[in-house]
Protein 1
Amino acid sequence: MIEVDKLARVHKDAEIGENCVIGPFCTIGPNVRIGANSILRSHVVVGPHTIIGEDSDIFPFVTIGIQSQDQKYIPGTITYTEIGDRNVIREFVSIHSGTAEGSKTTVGNDCALLAQAHVAHNCTVGDHVIMSHAATVAGHAVLGNYANIGGLAAIHQFCHVGRASMVGGMSRVIQDVLPFTIAEGFPAKMRVINKVGMERAGYSSAHIAEVRKAFRILFMRQLRLEQAVKQVQEEFPGSINVKLMVEAIDQSQRGLARPEDETFELNVSD
């Protein structure tokens, strides 16, 4: 059974899944598909060409699939927004559609986007991502699976925040954050390995140990980055996790949020 409040407005071309609840003052645009068992509590606006997965809980005053704020957007362009399953999207979150024709913004599964968080046009947000209160991700940024973005943090456009990494609250991220690390500051710099985050994501003690050692080789031995990368590849030839770190370095467009000198002290006794 689908429950649509009499004060909601659902476009005739929208598809609403079984057991969905559409609360009062919600507005659902054309070519929208909402998966089964999802709840839109009230005052939720879903723009055209948007997919929302199953079992999602969307709180009041959320906007999803609204037109990009990018100044390059051309009125009439058709763009897309895709939201996965089992997401919790809290009050006043905004998730914008893509900018260029046919492009899209995506959010994966099992994410928690807390109040006033913002995901800009053409972003890719992975699975199990947490964005705390008022965290902001600019256009074309990528958040890896299990990334944790602290409250009031801001991610610059095109930046990559790696898998199982963490960005501290009120940080300004203007360069890439490698997988499995913690970055914080203004601008943000990588500090240590995200041990707690890795544990919560199911990584073993052995996996954490090898990532920690790789981090030290990359940044704590005063090696040129090319030399350090070569060394970690030689020491951990079969490590998938170290490979992810190396790939992130190789693919970086904005450069790395490299640790500062005082970061060495944080890692000596770790």
Protein 2
Amino acid sequence: MKKVKVFIDVYYYKAALSGIRTYISELTLAAEIHGSKNIEYIFSHDIDELSNNQLFLNSKNQLIRWLFQFNYLIWKQLILPVKLLWHKPDYLICPDYISPILSFKTKKLTVIHDSLFWDYPKNYSSIWRKYFLTLINLGINERTHIITTSNYSKKNLLKVINKTTLIDYVFQSFENISIPKSNLESKLQLPESYILHIGSFEKRKDLITLVKAFHVIKKQESNTKIKLVLAGAQVVNGNKKIIKQIKSYILINDLENEILLPNYITKEEAHSYYKNALMYVFPSVDEGFGIPIIEAFSYCLPIICSDIPVFKEIGNDSVSYFKKGDFISLSEKIQTLINSEDLRKEFSKKGKSQLNKFSRKKFIKGFEDLIIG
């Protein structure tokens, strides 16, 4: 039996942040470890080698960011089609929203993670948004099958993509990386007890609601030792508004010694932060999936999320929910978990069970079911 050839484009890993970076890494590992014997996977690049080049990773230099976009455009629309002609794959998987206009006889599985570019135009530069949406739409044709990350995102994409294109969702995965023992944790100077959030500082993440909720709980004497850690890229595509807002609030309310802002962190550092946290809080007002939920599940952390539909789809009854955008509601949920070790253990146990839905084996099988049935 002739194997089906599947080419996976991982070029965007050079500049990908947080969710998409994890997605590309997990997809690559899932294909390598659990891929069907009836499929030959070809990877555009070795992501370990891409990891060694940090030049384009959330650079604060606008010229470098635009240089990447130029290189990315050349790769996606000129070099990648040549690769397809050379390798002659049956399918191309593009995990980064955009697929090449020319794919010849190759069918395309294009991953569009969410509908945020359509739903929140004010969150993006008008030029950048128009450029990005143009490339997305040019890559969608009769040979394209769109994959998204949740049923919630599928429903939203069906509303905004005005083409008769197949859209399906496949739950992504997260599995703990093996970290050799080191003195990293002492270097990080982790607090004795802390609430954790990891993710880029974007408006939709609504981190200010978490900061305000934390301020409320710090007013109780019993919480004096508890800190808040907000890790992740603070300036995203040159946008400094969110970090400025948070730092201003911290300064006005004398929280400089209570809130830690370690900026972008490595996988190894994230491992340490997750492993030692008291709980994970995810206050976003919108997401396509929310991979930190399953990351936190894997570390047996109790989780508090905003009550948006996608979080309920991913978390089910394994997390505690607060009213979106309501810092008082969030502070009450945090305090409840602080006060009850039994409740924290209960959510940790449920989360570990819920994690079974998001294995690498199921992740790649979701793609393979669409390829070979």
